Amino acid sequence: MKSHTRNIRSWFFAVLGLVVLVPVIWILIVRLEGEKPAVTFQLPGPALGISQTFSVTVADNKSGLRSIWFGLLSGTKQYVLLQENFPGSGFLGGGDVEKESFRVTLEPRELGIEDGQATLRIVVRDFSWRGRLKGNQAVVEKPVIIDTKPPVIDILTRFHNVAQGGAALVIYRLSEACPKNGVHVEEDFYPGFSGYFKDPGLFMAFFALRYDQGRGTKMFVQATDAAGNRSVAAIPHYIIKKRFRKDKITLSDRFLSAKMPEFSNELPQASRLSPVEIFLKVNRDLRRESYKKIKELVSHPDSKMHWNGIFLRLPNSARKAGFADHRDYFYGQKKIDSQVHLGIDLASIARSKVLAANNGRIVFSDKLGIYGNTVIIDHGFGIFSMYSHLSAIQVQPGQMVSKGDIIGLTGSSGLAGGDHLHFSILIHHTFVNPVEWWDASWIENNVLSKIKDVETYGG
Ligand SMILES: [Zn+2]
Fold this sequence. Notes:
Blueprint: H1 2-31, E1 38-41, E2 47-48, E3 52-59, E4 65-74, E5 77-85, H2 90-93, E6 99-106, H3 108-111, E7 116-126, E8 137-146, E9 153-155, E10 160-163, E11 167-174, E12 180-185, E13 188-191, E14 202-208, E15 219-224, E16 230-234, E17 237-240, E18 246-250, H4 253-259, H5 261-264, H6 275-297, E19 318-321, E20 325-331, E21 334-341, E22 344-347, E23 353-355, E24 360-367, E25 373-378, E26 383-390, E27 392-393, E28 400-401, E29 406-409, E30 421-427, E31 430-432, H7 435-438, H8 440-457
Parallel strand pairs: 2-8, 10-17, 18-20
Antiparallel strand pairs: 1-3, 3-6, 4-5, 4-7, 7-8, 9-11, 11-14, 12-13, 12-15, 15-16, 19-22, 20-21, 22-30, 23-29, 24-25, 24-28, 25-26, 26-30, 27-29, 30-31
Zinc ion (ZN) binds next to loops.
């Protein structure tokens, strides 16, 4: 009997123990969890400018989010950018919100924050009982530099005569490092390069006016510092109008049947098209694709000026077509297409030696759409020369060449009727008139004398 009572009593305590202990253990495990909230926050860079918006995501999938504090510490001062408490379901229940994203805008001047070093701090708490019931705390701190001053652009070259389809050089000084700086000619951007002068704040930018950009085209230097502060300075200039030649090209059946098979591989439906239809696809679509490819090839110019003095012209050659000739294409009596010729055609005897026009690095030596076998040389600071319709190529990409080195032989590969050299100069992605670069006095007046002035007088 006694043992029976004892049995009941011990069962009673065992059940009571379980009834009390299980929730207590559960509470201890769940409500006293020690996992900090997760904070996702990326700073694009350490420099902060006039205005920026940060995204921050906070999450706590155990106790739920309790609060977030986002602020900036500058000197002894503290600026609150965001402060929020999240709802919870009572003492035992924890937080209702597991995850939340915020966009926080900081405009230092609006808050009276001074330029200089500062710290961004994010403090996030959860609903755990840890930390004397204040919750687990995650702290993210990022050192930043507040910089609300835009860079100062000082243009050192005095005047800029720019011909339609021509090039120009501007030299300027920046008051601070600017990851992005260069010349805008309307929407076209021509980056600036430092490193030519000892002063690392001095930049050179070669830029171009497209043949179809006329008077009134806006051109200015633009510089953006690490904090995103941007300045603009107008370039004093005069635009020289040019009249471009009109040319009529009559397509013969002999030319079409001799030339079009070469392009059949590049056109999937070629077998179903007439020679004239193939020609139109080549002259329009393939021309556009070839230019796209060229733009890619010249998109990372060497930041060292390899070239020196005038550019060489194909020796003993006659000019067969000029820069920006407006060509109308006729088949029979009918005009079927119009294109603009963005190079100069030079003819000599067949398979003439083609020389590197100036010192540089070979960036391309292969077939290139309508241009056939082509070599492109990077002369540095955004200046490139291009040699097309070659019958043979004698250089490799990456190879350095000197002015006058043989790079290949003239030919009629690609969209060419006879043996000649199609020679082009590019300022970054823009074809310009090569005549300027063959002309010693143009180079002296527009490039070398400007460099000399800056070297002599500084800025
Ligand atoms: Zn040509």
